[in-house]
Specification:
Helix content: 10-25%
Pfam families: Exo_endo_phos2
Structural class: alpha+beta
Family: Belongs to the inositol 1,4,5-trisphosphate 5-phosphatase type I family.
Organism: Sinocyclocheilus grahami
Oligomer: single chain
InterPro entries: Endo/exonu/phosph_ase_sf, INPP5A, IPPc
Protein name: inositol-polyphosphate 5-phosphatase
CATH topology: Deoxyribonuclease I, Chain A
Length: 382
């Protein structure tokens, strides 16, 4: 896509962001997030921006969903987007309908200089010209311009109402058409359960769910097109392998609950350990050391492709607005937030050797607090 759209002068910015933290602290985190996002747009100067959000309204959405409208208003009125004359914003905010609620949001911004952009109407099965700015947040299940699908309940029966699913949109420019898919997969509910075997039971659940997504977006209902899937995949490092590798000489202490006698925690102790973090930006385990245990995508290596990772894990960062680089101790750091693509989409990025190209894959706001997830971007241009 970079090769073909860029040939017409159209840089593309793909962004995925789990924004759950922002609505818990709108005065600090939300303002910082908006500033960093806008600076990124201004720095890259794309003509098409696709922003996929997860956990819209926050983790406690009943209390903080009211902050979403002001967030979108500030985004649309920002200086960074002032020359984007067309916008499509889809927000799944209706948490009172638990059978349908996903907490996903898709925001698409089109620069005034980019002509002939069309969006697909999934009901009419045809493309329509994109004109003006529209915000849809009340009836996503019936939105013609968006395909919505929740995972079957039996994929994760421990959760009564799963909020994890996908939203799919389709755009075309000149002779090129492509799909953009927003996704949120299941997390690790228990560190202890995740540690029990390799790969973990949670990894298996995510694999099944991602397979469901792949089958859904490549079925026979619509023409198959190149696609980009970006969102919070909740991919985790192989916990058992990480611990066995990093704590091979450690002693293990089992702590049980006084009430149930069930294992409450495991403590690994090494005599020469100075209590440093498993991974930090400046010391300890390197990115490449941890990438060895990032294996969940390998099952789909023939179907999904990713640019090389050279940035720190995107989760779980401290939600303290003064701690931009600090990880929380709740989980092992991992690359949850990813931008993946089909083989056909990857092929669209390939350009002749004599043509200059720019493809960026990185975190946004590496030195400031963006919430518990760092925002992930891919910028495609010539």
């Amino acid at each position: 896509m970079a090769g073909k759209l860029a040939a017409q002068g159209a840089g593309i910015l793909l962004v995925t962001a789990n924004v759950g933290s922002l609505f818990e602290d709108p005065e600090n985190l939300q303002k910082t997030w908006l500033r960093e996002f806008c600076q990124t747009v201004q720095a890259h100067r794309p003509l098409f921006v696709a922003l996929h959000c997860q956990e819209v309204g926050g983790k406690n959405y009943e209390a903080s969903m009211t902050h979403v409208d002001s967030f979108i208003k500030e985004l649309l009125s920002s200086d960074a987007l002032k020359d984007f004359s067309r916008a499509r914003v889809y927000l799944d905010k209706n948490y009172q309908s638990q059978e349908q609620f996903t907490a996903l949001g898709c925001c698409y911004f089109i620069h005034e200089s980019l002509k002939n952009i069309q969006q697909f109407d999934f009901k009419a099965k045809k493309f329509r010209k994109v004109v003006g700015k529209e915000v849809c947040s009340d009836a996503l299940p019936s939105a013609a311009m968006l395909e919505k699908e929740k995972f079957p309940q039996d994929y994760f029966p421990e959760v009564r109402h799963s909020v994890l699913c996908l939203l799919q949109s389709r755009f075309s420019h000149e002779a090129l058409a492509f799909d953009l898919v927003n996704i949120h997969l299941f997390h690790d509910a228990s560190n202890l359960v995740a540690w029990e075997k390799s790969p973990s039971v949670y990894s298996g659940t995510r694999q099944k769910a991602l397979g469901f997504v792949m089958d859904r977006i490549t079925d026979q209902r619509f023409e198959r097109l190149p696609y980009f899937i970006f969102g919070d995949f909740n991919f985790r490092l192989d916990s058992k392998q990480v611990i066995e590798s990093l704590c091979s000489t450690a002693s293990v202490q089992t702590v049980r609950s006084a009430d149930t006698n069930e294992v409450d925690k495991l403590i690994f102790r090494e005599s020469d350990n100075d209590r440093k973090q498993l991974y930090s930006r400046n010391r300890g385990t390197s990115i490449n050391d941890l990438l060895e245990f990032d294996r969940e995508l390998s099952v789909f290596k023939e179907r999904l492709h990713e640019l090389d990772i050279s940035f720190p894990p995107s989760y779980p960062y401290s939600e303290d607005s003064s701690q931009g680089k600090q990880y929380m101790n709740t989980r092992c750091p991992s690359w949850c937030d990813r931008i993946l693509m089909s083989a056909s989409a990857r092929d669209l990025l390939v350009k002749p050797e004599n043509e200059e190209k720019l493809i960026t894959y990185d975190n946004i706001g590496p030195n400031v607090c963006m919430g518990d997830h760092k925002v992930q971007l891919t910028y495609l241009s010539n």
